[in-house]
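ingest -> fold -> write
write: protein_1
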Amino acid sequence: MLLKRMLRVVATAGVLSVVLGLGACSMPGSGNAGASDGASSSSSSSSESSSYEAELKQALQSASSDFERGVLERAVKAGKISESDYREANEKYQECMAAKGDDVEFDTDQSTGLMQEHMNTDDNYDSAKANEDSMACAKGTNLQIRDLYERMVQNPSNADEIELVVGCLKRRKLVPDSFTKQDYLTEMGKPEGSSKLDTSSDAFSQCLANPSK
């Protein structure tokens, strides 16, 4: 499959799949106070949506099919890609792959609601053909939609994703409090086995997958 689909966590590229849980708190009070809280909540939601405005518009400009354009035009107006459009995009991609003889399936991660792609292979599996098919099928179906939707779900405020991971590593005592984003990039850029980071540990993997925990 496409490297970007299989290696969804690329530590040295600054594109890490993370989950940022955001909660809203409201204080009890009078009717006027409640209205104020509602306005604040609406403002926060609007801010989160607008954080991806540039990316949505850029994706729309790169759309290569009527389907993609329709999805992204709706997303620009709403401030986000809808789950139904995300799922339909992946279904169209899957149908295209099936037509090319590639047995692709999607499983839904129950903790995030995101669709995880995997391919059923046999002794005749041709990785070069599969990659070529994947690139061809993604164009016009989920190429401009899938990764952007998943980033919006996992990181709604569009925060610096590496900083989030570094924060998780600190909370789990995997790195000292003085550890910085640059330290992380330096360590991850070292040859395999020479980094000070225990990248094979479950705790490290969990920070990459969901640094908010």
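write: protein_2
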Amino acid sequence: MGMAAANGTSVSIQDLSLNFGAVSVLQTLNLDVAEGEFIVLLGPSGCGKSTLLNCIAGLLDISEGRIFIKGKNVTWEEPKDRGIGMVFQSYALYPQMTVEKNLSFGLRVAGVPKDEIAKRIARAAEILQIEPLLQRKPAALSGGQRQRVAIGRALVRDVDVFLFDEPLSNLDAKLRSELRVEIKLLHRKLQNTMIYVTHDQIEAMTLADRIAVMRGGVIQQLDAPQTIYNRPVNRFVAGFLGSPAMNFLEGQLEAGSTFKTDGVSVPLERYAFDGTERPTGACVLGIRPEHIAFGEAAKSMPFSASGSVEIVEPMGSDTLVWTKLGGRNLSFRVEAERTLRSGDPVQFGFDPARASLFDAATGNRL
């Protein structure tokens, strides 16, 4: 047992870089995943999240750095010797085999005894509720059932670490949210380490113990979902997480005490700056639509303003209302019962303590 395993680190990635020719895809990346943790790698297409997962799986040879699983250096081990189970976006099931044969195939090849195989399949089928499907072939299964079988194939391997590569992105929205709940319950039941890649921020927020937000092969922020949501380290992270998206207002910061944009002044006494010094200059104020109060409630806020309704977007459970603040678009949420129309006057306000300020040049949180 190495040091890492003793203190409960399941996967440790140290100074990992990956280049394809002259193109650097991952840059000196470090990530420690605790025993039994659910980590989500989140980011737009091409940010390197699937590439990183494939490096952990051993499907790609890395250019520099080391990968440890359970304290063992697996940097150059074959995928089958790394103690991982992989679940892909495409289910990649063998069409000519029954579900049972699909589940047992890897174990049969590895020479696992018959009774042990039967035991593992029975357990996986029970956990994933696919017992009635064991004698069917993949063509006779729905997308959700196929994805369950694909998860089952990783499950029977009895491994320490599960790697999921966008496993739900081929499914429709309703099925996605159902399977999301199942994956969460599965993690609670098994307590295995899970590393999960997605570009869907709802998936990330609901599943993760910690989210690693990636961009351009670099981890921008690694933290609990709520922390990333409430205190994003930069404008990219702030804009990537949250639906509907955060409002961004460009303006000027005056001695760290007031934010000004087109004749509007927002007092910042209640804003917690990251550093001790009070910055000045061009900056961007970010405020989430759900943190903006409306109507009577707006009057008790440290900052309030009035405007008129530009457009109204009904979302079902609530409604998104667009107005203008200092000439910039601003959206906020109101209860679905409120009937607002274009041109209606509105009063709105927010507590700057819940806002985020970003340097206009670097995009970093102030």
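write: annotation protein_2
The two ends are 43 Å apart (CA to CA).
The chain has a mean pLDDT of 92.
pipeline exit 0
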